[in-house]
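User: quick one, fold this
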Amino acid sequence: MDNPAWSRRGFLGLGVGVLGAAGLAACGDTSASPTKVQPKVPQELIDAAASMKGSSMGVLSQKLYSTAANEALDSSIATFAAATGTKIENSLVQADAGDVVAKIDAEVKGGVARDLAFMTDSRFVAQFQALGDLEDVTDVVKALTAKYGEPCAEAKNYCVFDGKWFAIPYHFIGIGSFLRKDWMRDKGITPKDGYSWEELRDLCLAISDPGKRRYGWGMTVNRSGDANGMIEALINSYGGAIASNDGRKVTFDSPETVQAVSFLGDIYTNPKFKPMLPPGVASWTDTSNNENWLAGILGYTRNQFSVYADSRTKKNPVHENTHVFSDCTGPATDTPLLLGQSQGFVVFKGAKNPGLAKLLAQYLVSAPALAGVAKEAPGLVMPAWQKVWDADPFFTSGDPAFPMLRKITELSLPLKTKNGLTFPQKASAGQQAVGGAYVLTDMMQQVVQGTAPAQAVQAAHAKMAQIFTQQGLPQ
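Assistant:
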């Protein structure tokens, strides 16, 4: 789901080997004085770090689709470093590169990994945990729970293995669906809080007008995190899934999956829907729907709140004309299956300064440190902890979309389909590796090029089974 998150822009180390000191451009030495006024680091954390004064550590951050948000995070880290008398280097990574897990695993096994990183929990934590790359951080989560209440609901599934936490919930990543309400108004259509996929498809066609550069359907099925998330969400809503609820057995090749794939493939191949497809949509990458939405030529897109945040912070007129809703329903669902996802801090095995890493994580999840980042990426960066939501008025009333996002963080899980699927399914290294290999988008490309949906689904199932087996889950 946009499936997305960290925001997927500009992999800094591409083509230069593993993500080591030589492989990623650092954001600068954050031991320098911060450039902006930052909240004080709590005395309890400064005291706890007293024995670490003069030491250093490295942080690996998923790049956010907001330069100002990345700079705000740097500034928060700099504040902590200055207050504790330590040196902390923060480096950015583009997590949609496809090989990020393999590269970081090589760093860990080679003893040169950063001490702390934050990664999208539903996409990466199970893979790193299965590889034996992560330290148990249950002690930190227990301390934060005592202070801030419960973490967001989905994190309890994606960060916990055998009753132990291997990632510390950092911030919730807003994901949503966006429609142009002014285009709808022009056609006499009143926005609703929810749609089925079929209703959405027909709505997108109704509001399209290529002569006015209005294209209703702003989603690609080309290789990208956004396409991956959309395809999987649609299949789930039809009653299909990559794997069984326990995350261990590939169950992809089902009548429900074929029905969903047929529906989606029809959008890109049926001449009836051509007027709602933007030019070049077949070759879009992860930045394309953002750029085209912000350019005002799309009627609908599904994305992390990065695109919403960007339109708001840059005062793009698109923002005032955006209707936000959570996600679409399908034949197997009465309510959307949107769980959201969160960034989780992980401490890698062999970290040189794990104690300092855990203290930094506790500072960055707090409302004062998080608010600086969140205000630069509203909706994309939201609290992962119950009491942090109430600790700053920005989180509760800073934008009309925020209450919807909070509701998602506090869902009673799992959500169920009519045919017995439950979401979230148990975190699975196999399922996360399938996402990283872009099996879903490759399958849809085959359908668009003329392969029968049933045949494409069968081939994708076989590929998934192979990946699960490679991940230690023999089929």
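User: anything notable?
Assistant: Residues 1-37 have pLDDT under 50 and may be disordered.
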